[in-house]
Amino acid sequence: MDPLIGKTDLFFDRDPIANSRSGSIKSQKHSQSFDGKDFADFLKGSSYQIDSELFALVSSLDPMEFSDTEFLTAAKQFNDEDFVRAIYQAYLNREPGNSELNFWITEIKLKKGSRIALPIALRKTVHFTLLSQASKKKKIFNAPNNFFSQHLFSALKIFRKYLGIQSIEIIISINQVIEQNEFIMAGFMDQPKTGDKIKTSTYMIAGWLIWKNYPPTIRLISNETVINEVPIQVRRPDVTNAYCLESKTHNWGFKILLNIKDLSERGELQLQANFSNHQIVNFGLIQYIKY
């Protein structure tokens, strides 16, 4: 095995700022409007007080439709606690825990009222990425909603199955190694990517991982069952060079076989790094639909 020499940080820098729209404010759960007031008037706070109704409206802002700056403006009149609570509900669909609430209130005060760090930080979380990508692909997961399209969809599935054609579309592909930890220095799932359409009976999931002290294998999990497990034995000299490592084998990569025909119609696949000290770290998440 190669000893790991060198140290680096892996930064996760993704900030999908959506375009803003005026008019009605769309919630993740429902749509709200401001009784004829336009969005600019609302942002100015000219006609609204900080009450339960305003808190509900701001916490329902969809971050996929409004920018961080617009959210900050909308919540400008909130105290720090209400601001943190509102943005957690809007960006992550949940209330912050006590430790999260105290941490961000302290951070805002230490930075003399600066709040922009919080929405930026929340956008970089895996949970926000799941929510945003799932929102974009929601229509794909919805079954056809009329009689004709339902039967046509079913007939096409039967015909494709009869011909032995098995295809899947990757709805979400997420790398869960976003920073180094006690087991991993860095890692990445190269394929599949979100939006990929796979029209073969088998497919190779590929990526690389730089481990620290305990050599791992990579597991592919479906419905809480291990369907394949491989060692990290694929040569990746590009990874060696990029991270200034010392290695004779350059074995940082992996390829793991996926049999499309064995998959259910829709579901999730989990990649895990299974270390020799029996520790397991989630590596990648794949959500797909089969047709």
Q: What would you say this structure looks like, in words?
A:
This protein folds into 2 domains: 25-134, serine acetyltransferase, domain 1; 164-290, Immunoglobulin-like (Sandwich). The chain has 10 helices and 12 strands. The protein has helices at residues 39-44, 52-59, 68-74, 80-92, 98-110, 117-123, 126-136, 138-141, 147-162, 237-242; strands at 25-26, 31-32, 168-175, 184-191, 197-198, 202-211, 216-222, 225-231, 234-235, 251-259, 266-275, 280-290. β11 (266-275) and β12 form a beta hairpin. α2 packs across α4 (80-92) and α4 runs parallel beside α6. It is globular, with a radius of gyration of 23 Å.
Characteristic key phrases:
single chain; alpha+beta; serine acetyltransferase, domain 1; Immunoglobulin-like; 10 helices; 31% helix
